[in-house]
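Hey, quick one: can you model this chain's 3D structure?
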Amino acid sequence: VLKEHGVVDAGGFGLAIIFDAFTAALLGRAGTMVDELSFGRASHPKVEIEQVNDWEGSQYRYCNEFLVDSDTLDREEALNFLSTMGDCELCVGDVPKFKVHVHSDHPDQVLAYFLERGQVSEVFIHNMQMQSVERTEKLAAEEEAQRKPLGFVAVAAGEGNAAILKSLGVDVVVSGGQTMNPSTKDLLDAIGSVNADAVIVLPNNSNIIMAANSAAELAEVSCAVVPTKSVPQAFSALFSVDQDASLETNVEEMAEAAAAVKTGEVTWATRDSKD
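Sure thing. Here's the predicted structure for all 275 residues.
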């Protein structure tokens, strides 16, 4: 049965090649086994089955997919017919095995055409409009289920600070800091990307507080700024978060926690001092 369908056992085929090579070497001839098997496979055309995900944007209601077994089907004529029935037409394979796909409002007429020319199997007819609506509703429900009451945006420089802030619950870290002030738009975009009912912004630099306040005023969700002036202050503020408390209560508690933190920095001078 395997031989009739051009299929070979991998282990047995390998052993056969070895024996054939030994024989060819002893007799001084080239082996022909691989060519014969390749010819055998070519004489049994296969129908490639592929997943078609092109429902979006079609003006037709039904996605029709099925297999056709026919000794008389003309593939070009079939494609011409399918083009009159809808869009995304596909007819692949060769006598006697074909796969057909088309978007159409008349699956009955499509099936009737191929039933007159052969046998049809594995028929799938999907109502794309219903599935599109269901998928949209499902995605919206999932997004709503993941929505948090309170989200956070923080400004920080460096992957290390960003990683710590995210581990403490920050949703979006905007790259910035001393001499690298993000714009109001940068902060506004970050606020808009947080899936939460309210957002708190931690600027972590005195030069960024004004831009943070402007972004909070322009945000489409409830937004407030805890005026942190350093990343360590943000760490302390985040430890005091209570997801069950109101936005106002959290801002008050976080600001109090941040104010209790005193920080110092050691850095390189921008220019040499005079003697």
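One thing worth noting: Residues 77 and 83 are 10 Å apart (CA to CA).
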